[in-house]
Every structure is written in C-alpha cells, then in structure tokens.
C-alpha cells in the first residue's frame, strides 16, 4: 500500500484550504520586533474539535481554558494564539488573562466563550500585557481571510525563534467527495514533545465523529510530534488542536468508514510533515536528522532507541561536524534502556554501511563526509532482534543553538 | 555531625599517598599529541578490590577482562589504563587485545594475569595499535614511583579532552591509625554515568572487607558519580575501581566497625570531589552547576528531578549566557516524570529568590547577572512536597562543547 494512492499533497495549500476556514494575524506588541504576534483561525460553522496537550506538570494557563472549551461541546469556532509570551507560571492572574483572551475573542467574532480555544508561546513567567492583547484582538477580525494571505499572517503570528513557517495541505477522496486536511505549526526550542507537541493546528473540511478525530489525533501524535526532539526539553505550552468543519459533505467518518484508511494516512502525513518541519527548523539547526530503528524487540523499544539516538548531544554535534562517528550512535543505542543484542547491530548513514553485526565496516570517509554535509541525514539502526520499528526526527547541535539560548530572555 | 570531624583533606595528597601504592605513566603513541596515554597504579601487596561498570549495553572489552580479574580472588595488584582508544566495539580482536594488555602488564611487573585490571578510554570502534601498547607496557615499570611524580604521570595518562587532572586525598583515624583514601579520575565528554562512571580510581591503605568495600563503592557512586552529567550520554567504558592495600594496619573495616562512619564519609568525599571535578571540567564548560532538590516526595524523585534540571540543554545554555531564566528550570522540573505539586515550588539561584509557591518574585537582574557569571552556580529547587532530597552536578553548554564534539574524531 503506497501512501500516494490514498491522498495527494497540495503544493499551494494552507490551513484555510479546507472549506469553512479563515485565518489572520497581526502585530500587537508582544514581540520586540515588528513580526506578527497574535493570530486566529476561525471556522464559519462549529467545527468538531480535538486536542492533545503537554505532559509537563506545569501547564500554562491557556491549556486550562482550551480544555474547558473543548470539553463543553466538543466543538470550536475559533482558536486565538499569541507568541512572545507563554502565559505560563503566571498564577491566578495568568488564568484570568487567558479567560479574558477567550472572552475578548468571542466578543470580537460574535461567538460564545466556549467556542474559542486559546494558545500562547514565548517567555515563561511574565504576565501578558493585556492592554496590547485587547487592542490586538479588536483588530483581528479585520485580518481574517479564506485565502492564502490570511494563512500566511497566521503562520507568521505563531513563530518565536522559528526561521520559517510550517504549513502543509493534503487532499483525498472520501465517498467520492474531495476532503482536505491542512496544518500549521511552530517549534524551534524546548522541543521534546511528550503526548503533545509545540503549537500545531490542523484543519479539515471532513465530516468526522469527535471520538474518531480525538483517537486519530492521539495515534498520529505518537508517531509524529512525539517522535521529534530539538533539545530534550518538554515545553509547558505544547498543544495540538484539530478542527473539522464538515463542509466537505462526506458521510461521517468513523474508524468503520470504508475510506478511513485514506483519511488517517492523510492526517498522519500532515502531522509528520509539520513535525519534520519543526525538527528541521530546530534552534540553530543546519540539518534534519532522521533516525530509523528496525527489528527491535517491540515498536516501543524502537521508539525509545530512535529518540535516544536523535536526542544525543554527541550524535547531534557529530552531524554538525559532518563526522561519521558511529561510535556515538551505538553508545546512544546502548544507553536507551531497551533490550538490545550487543552482537547483532547494523548501522547505515544514508546508504553507507558503517557497522555490521556490531563491528566496524571500512567505508569511504570522503563519501561519508559528502553525505553528512547534505541537507538531511538519515541514520538506520537495524537491531536484528525482533520486528519493532520506529522513526524519530531531530537536528544537529550547533554554535547557533548555544548562541540563541544563551541570550534568549535578556 | 560535620564531616570535618570525621576526616581531613590532604592538600598535597595523591593516589600514591595511601601506603603501598606506586603509579606512573608515559606516552606510547595512542594520542596524536605528546601527552601521556598509558599509565598504571601498582600495589606492593594484593589489594582488596571492588569495581562498578557502565550500564551501557555495549561494554568495552577491558570491562570484561577487569570483571574477570576481580571475580578471581577479589584482589588486584595493578590496574593498567590507556587513553586515546576505548577498545569498544572491536569484537573478538578487541577482547584478545585487552587480554594481551593484561598479560603483558603482568609479565612486566612479575605478577599473575588475574591480579591486573585493564581500562581504556578514547575513540570507539578502532583496534588498539598493539605494537605501541606492547612497547609502552615494557617501559611502564620504569616510570613507577610512590611519590607525587608517579601520580602526576598517571593522572596525565588517563585524560582525553579533559583540561585538568582530577585528584583528591583524605585521611582519617581508624582504630587510632591514620588511614588515607585517594582518587584520580578522567571525564570530560560522554558523561552521564549510570551505576558507574567514567574512569576513576580510588586507593586506600585501609584494611577492609571486600564485601564492605564493594557495598560502599556502590552506595557512594549513586550519590556522586551517578549524579553528574555533562551531555546525557553514557559511555561504553565507564569504570570505577577501588583498591585497598591494608597497610594502614587497622582492624578490618566492616559496616559494623566503630569507625565505619568516618571511613564511609571520607570515601564519599573522595568520590564526590572527583565527580564534581569531572562536571566542572566537562567539555567546553565555563561553570560548575550544582542543583539541589529538597522536600521531594522521595530521595529517588529528588534525584531524578535534580538530574533532569542539571541535564537540560536550555538550562545549561542559560547558565552559559548568565541568564536568570528560571522558566527553563521549572519546565525541566515539570518534565522529570516525578510527582510535583505545581503550586508549591520555590527556586533560588545562589541566595537570590526567583520563585516562591511557583510564582515569580521580582529580583535584581544585575545581582543575578553577577552571580551567574561566577565560577559555580547553585540552583536550589524546594518542592515543599515531602522530605526527599538530592544534589546533582553538571556544567554549562557552550560554543566550545559544540566545537570539541563537531571535530573530535576527524
């Protein structure tokens, strides 16, 4: 089964491509630069909604508000997002501010409070300058459009240290109707999602059961957003929200629907594309690193090992230096806390075999150097010890990561 | 009970200070520089011996040989160590080489094979150039001395990317006899010990039961070497060996001995001093970071949280930038996977209170900057949620860490 046959990628698509969605964004003064820092996605009908959140003990105030909104009726009309301030560790005032963001957005759009989700990203521990937020929200409806311009403004508004916007759109055939799924995300630092991710938003015009959407969101997250790491730090603000307008007019999608597989494949592609884009645009990154582990004792073991390798500071530094240092790869495999046969490990860098049965294989250093200087580095670890497999994504560790994070707050 | 009353630190002491030990080292050609790369500690009598090893699945060949030697009679006469080559992932030839190192050292010193421990550190996956090792071992006995010069040559021989040697010696009174405990270690990179450490060697002239020594070694390791991290990567070669000559002439130490507490405190001080020295001299480090967690639900929870905070790339980068970014500290506390009350956390940087009951406290940024630019940064996280406590040590994340590790092998 090739995924190509189940859905197609829309080159020009954005979060406003699925029917029923508008987006917009503006600069209200939360960021020191003139970049956008407030945005919204709005659906013209109540969209079936699902979300996953960070597992960090310290959860930012907006997460509480969003949970409450979705719990109300399982539907959303809009999500409002600010960057530049995470509204985390801000106490009761922070909660009050998040509720006020929700209420102000509802008022500006003529909606009910419980139809609005709230998300924030940025510095932890500072109160939102609510005067700026209030003024910004009043201006938000004027920025909304269903064209690519609105999506562009939204994508810019959610970025922090990100260098590029992250967007994707796919389409597929459900009941003979065209259904679209699109997504936008921000990432960059404090990226080591655990059962949730940095801010990511998925829109679709599919008609879908809420329970099926929530289940799909969780499953896709485990294989995509939860498989990326930039620095091993799980944020207090991670949130992934999916909204389905239902305007495609298909018969309701459930896991029993004959076209479920196509929808699920497209949905996972959207999540994976955003997750990889976050990894590739990790703070200071020059390369995307993709680690695939095969033939582990279980998928869970493969996942743990893939994440350990892709998260290793020494592996990440070696990739930055274009150094085919497989010793660091095998050392990371060995400390992942998973069952591994120490005598049966094969490792490839791209197509270059460097280790067979846990023993070094002579390889062409020049060829390896050229490969490691490329845009994407794939590391394949075959444990020859079972049938479990997984892929994880990350980036190299560079001078710029240190520079960015030694001076982020001050 | 102050530790000061139980033992005293010998400012000029070294691993040859305890009675019965000699040490030495030389350059045999394993390192590209002219620094020493082969060394030995030799005891004039069979020393009671104990060791702990890395938990990495991939264990280097010398660990197998050393385990076998200690298992034989629980005693050692010598340990031979090389740097520049880890003899890890080198297969049957690597094992044969480690056995040959042991046999050659036994022959050069006129001892039996099983009286020799072997340790290696350096690059993974390359065979030892045994001709150089053989020649070096022949020259080793000529470098041995019981004075500080021999210890100095040994300490130099075990370093890789370390900038400074790590040595400590304490003395105490057992049965009215002076007993000394001394140690030497190397660290720098791939430092995240788990039930063992990078190479470390402890000598003592105490008379001590082997079982008591092994138990003490394990307990002290958990509170010292296992509480440091440089980069989260656990090496394939970690090994800590303790040798007790018994020449102090005290009655045999067991956990029942009236002076056990003094010996254990001195022993832990030796381990902690070496562990902190490894953290302070972490690759690229400019500062030692000490994280203390108090009033956790258990000591285990405190340990996990302290290690998570001290290992966070974002916290480490902030310390390098002298940025009082407590948001990253609390985010690390929250992702440690331990029970934490999100509303009761206090955080101090040195004496500067930055968070009380999980809420920011205004502080003097200039004062914080001055503190964070110091040589040692202490972070105190009080969870106000139990009685567990722990301290972990690490270092900042700097441009030099990236530089060193982007170019280590090539």
Automatic annotation (TrEMBL), chains A, B:
The keyword Acyltransferase applies. GO terms for molecular function: L-glutamate N-acetyltransferase activity; L-glutamate N-acetyltransferase activity, acting on acetyl-L-ornithine as donor. The record marks 196-197 as: Cleavage. It comes from Fontibacillus solani. Pathway: Amino-acid biosynthesis; L-arginine biosynthesis; L-ornithine and N-acetyl-L-glutamate from L-glutamate and N(2)-acetyl-L-ornithine (cyclic): step 1/1; Amino-acid biosynthesis; L-arginine biosynthesis; N(2)-acetyl-L-ornithine from L-glutamate: step 1/4. Belongs to the ArgJ family. One of its GO terms (biological process) is ornithine biosynthetic process. GO terms for cellular component: cytoplasm. The active site is at residue 197. Keywords: Acyltransferase, Amino-acid biosynthesis, Arginine biosynthesis, Autocatalytic cleavage, Cytoplasm, Multifunctional enzyme, Transferase. Its EC number is 2.3.1.35, 2.3.1.1. Coiled coil: none annotated. HAMAP family: ArgJ. Substrate binds at residues 160, 186, 197, 283, 405, 410. The record marks 121-122 as: Involved in the stabilization of negative charge on the oxyanion by the formation of the oxyanion hole. It catalyses: N(2)-acetyl-L-ornithine + L-glutamate = N-acetyl-L-glutamate + L-ornithine; L-glutamate + acetyl-CoA = N-acetyl-L-glutamate + CoA + H(+). Catalyzes two activities which are involved in the cyclic version of arginine biosynthesis: the synthesis of N-acetylglutamate from glutamate and acetyl-CoA as the acetyl donor, and of ornithine by transacetylation between N(2)-acetylornithine and glutamate. This is Arginine biosynthesis bifunctional protein ArgJ.
């Amino acid at each position: 089964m090739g995924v190509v046959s189940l859905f197609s990628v829309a080159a020009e698509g954005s979060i406003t491509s699925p029917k029923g969605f508008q987006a917009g964004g503006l600069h209200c003064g939360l960021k020191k630069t003139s970049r956008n820092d407030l945005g919204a996605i709005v659906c013209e009908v109540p969209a079936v909604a699902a979300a996953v959140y960070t597992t960090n003990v310290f959860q930012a105030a907006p997460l509480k508000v969003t949970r409450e909104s979705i719990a109300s009726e399982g539907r959303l009309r809009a999500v409002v997002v600010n960057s530049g301030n995470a509204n985390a560790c801000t106490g009761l005032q922070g909660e009050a501010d998040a509720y006020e963001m929700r209420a102000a957005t509802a008022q500006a759009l003529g909606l009910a409070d419980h139809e609005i989700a709230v998300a924030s990203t940025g510095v932890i521990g500072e109160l939102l300058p609510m005067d700026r937020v209030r003024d910004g929200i009043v201006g938000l409806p004027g920025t909304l459009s269903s064209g690519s311009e609105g999506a562009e403004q939204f994508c810019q508004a959610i970025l922090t240290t990100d260098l590029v916007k992250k967007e994707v759109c796919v389409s597929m055939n459900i009941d003979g109707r065209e259904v679209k799924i699109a997504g936008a995300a921000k990432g960059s630092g404090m990226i080591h999602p655990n059962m949730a991710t940095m801010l990511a938003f998925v829109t679709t015009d599919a008609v879908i059961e809420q329970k099926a959407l929530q289940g799909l969101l969780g499953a896709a997250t485990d294989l995509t957003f939860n498989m990326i790491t930039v620095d091993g730090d799980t944020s207090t603000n991670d949130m992934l929200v999916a909204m389905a307008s239902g305007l495609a007019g298909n018969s309701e999608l459930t896991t029993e629907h004959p076209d479920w597989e196509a929808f699920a494949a497209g949905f996972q592609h959207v999540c994976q594309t955003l997750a990889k884009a976050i990894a590739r645009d990790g703070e200071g990154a020059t390369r995307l690193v993709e680690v695939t582990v095969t033939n582990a004792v279980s998928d869970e073991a493969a996942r743990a090992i893939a994440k350990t390798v892709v998260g290793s500071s020494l592996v990440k530094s070696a990739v930055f230096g274009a150094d085919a240092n497989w010793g660091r790869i095998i050392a990371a495999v060995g400390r992942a806390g998973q069952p591994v046969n120490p005598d049966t490990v094969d490792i490839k860098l791209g197509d270059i075999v460097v280790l067979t049965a846990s023993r070094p294989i002579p390889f062409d250093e020049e060829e390896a150097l050229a490969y490691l200087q490329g845009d994407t580095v794939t590391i394949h670890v075959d444990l020859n010890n079972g049938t479990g497999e997984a892929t994880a994504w990350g980036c190299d560790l560079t001078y710029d990561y240190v520079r960015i994070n030694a001076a982020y707050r001050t």
